[in-house]
Amino acid sequence: MIAPPRCFSLTLAFLLTITYYSSLSHAQPTPNPPVDPYGPVLLSENGSWCWFQDERALLIGDKVWFTGVTSEGHNTVSEWNLNNHQTISQVLTEGTLPADDHNVGALMLRPDGKILTVYAGHSIDSLVRYRSTREPFDIRSWEEESTFHHQGRVCYANLYHLEEEGKTYNFFRGNENNPHYLVSKDHGESWESGGRLFQFEGRSYLKYVSDGKSRIHFITTDGHPRHFNNNIYHGYLENGRAYRSDGTLVGPLSTGETSNLKPSDFTLVYDGDLQTRTDVAWTSDIQLDEEGMPYFAFSVTKDPISRGETVNTSLGGFDHRYHDARWDGKNWISEEMAYAGSRLYPGENEYTGLISLHPSNKNILYFSADVHPHTGQPLLVNGERRYEIFRAERQAEDSPWYFSPVTFGSAEDNIRPIVLADANREVVLWLSGRYSTYRDYQLKVYGKILPKQEENSIGQGKKITFLISKDPDNYEADLTVPYFAMKLAKENGYQTQVILGEGERTAFHLPDLENSRNSDLLVFFLRRVALSTDQMDLIKNHLREGKPVIGIRTANHAFSVREEIPSGYEDWWDFVPEVLGHENKGYGPATEKTNIQFVKKPGKGLLTGMDRQTWKSDGNLYLIGNSLDPKARELLRGHSSGQVNPIAFRRKAGKSKVFYTSLGYPTDFTHPFFLQLMKNAIQWTLK
């Protein structure tokens, strides 16, 4: 299905056509080797995209189509089959456009099932280029390229069909660097000039979204952030008129080469203070929620260089922040939500890794950053900063954001996510590799599927307390565990509390632990800490009362402290054999991933909601040798570097139910099998 509001509505006949086509078998490339269906999937060895073109990707049925520009400058359209992970790609241009990611095309699914793409060079000529597939839903064969000659040099493409008008619009940058639009009455077979959206001495950057029926929303800057201390404005177009956010009429939409409209005529959402060279904004993404209300994201440069500077570009662009904004029907609510990190390269000091919104849920988004999103501390891999992809989610519109890595510890940068979704899943695409400039890059395209999580109230009335520590070797538990705790509360109704410890690990303190005596379950993700005697007694009393515990990854050396411990504090080496039921025997190679094998038949018990598909963890294998309690029930086994070890099991310690898994690497928390395993374990321990 097509997720609104990304595309116009489909008729029943069209939906039936999709179903019929999906059932057909036709020639495909040799299948890719078996892959983890919920892990990152390599989709293309060579691709890139800018972010001022939409749609760059479509999710229709069980297929994703996406555009790209290779490092040689070839425009491509690719297909990803979500069922078997086969991919095909078709080159549309070869030698006619230079290497430049700004040349990437926009996509639109026509009512007849054919795919339309429109693209343009990066202000190198006045040609708007377009073509459609020859057959419905089949990117292997395309009509010859056609062109529309516009006044002035052109760039970008944004395609929207308005069902009530029966027209398709293409918004692009045209004469004098102002936004213009073309109109098609035959779904992109031919085009005619529509008019000029803005006319002013500036180069505004717009993002658009449509409800597919009658309205097109946009957000815009005053200009390029190199030259303007940008504000962000919102407006919408409907029935040939332009409006502010509250429905106030601004004026008619131009149908000629002049316009009376400019960005500042519309609703000011973010005030960057045009007179002060700080807090310079740039548009990133806009979407509509299920009620048709707009929400959007943008970046803010906190340390810009002087306006128009092109030489001393190394003097700024090291501190960007991501902001989100939503319209509640009367007002815009906007706030900073995460650190974004540093520029992608000097010269384009406002280029971030980018942020992308869920197309219908304002409480989910993805972004790229080379810093910890809460603290702004650099993410280092072998001493070098690395951009990683994060998934962000919040419990409700007025709740804080929580973050979990989709990529982590990467050898190359991961940038520019695109999010798609339907009723059953999310799909995120991103670029990975080297990005030196918009004309010099070598990037691969990856994708990942996240099925929609089941929501129920099984946790109602149950309190879970997570005890975690933060250090360089504790796998970002300060990010992943609060994120997971939020999901438990949101999706299952648990009352969750996360206690992040503080202080030296030989004299560690868990704030407010004393107030967690009424917790039904304690979850440990601590690494080599000693607690005060009083706090350790609280944990031991929890076990004496027969209450359950869960250990994640480093919990198998949670209280195993090697240094000298000051008076009043104590370790607990026997926590691992006596409670968790095994011994810590070290680790497999740090660079090797773990292949996961089901010991028990999936689909029931603690393995409910899983099936026998390939499953991998980016984390290395924890070794326990033959030390596992013979009464423990092994659930999962890990294979890595020729070694095999239990990695998930349950047992009893006295009257307490105990579950332990050495999984818990940062990217595990965006793997649906791991999330399901943890939810099953929680339900079992509390049963």
Automatic annotation (TrEMBL):
Top-level taxon of origin: Bacteria
Keyword set, alphabetical order: Signal
Keyword hit for Signal: yes
Cleavable signal peptide: 1-27
SUPFAM superfamilies named among the record's database cross-references: Class I glutamine amidotransferase-like, Peptidase/esterase 'gauge' domain
InterPro entries (UniProt xref): Class_I_gatase-like (IPR029062), ThuA-like (IPR029010)
Sequence ranges assigned to domain ThuA-like in this UniProt record: 487-685
Transmembrane segments: none
Protein name: BNR-4 repeat-containing protein
Annotated source species: Cyclobacterium jeungdonense
Organism phylogeny: Bacteria, Pseudomonadati, Bacteroidota, Cytophagia, Cytophagales
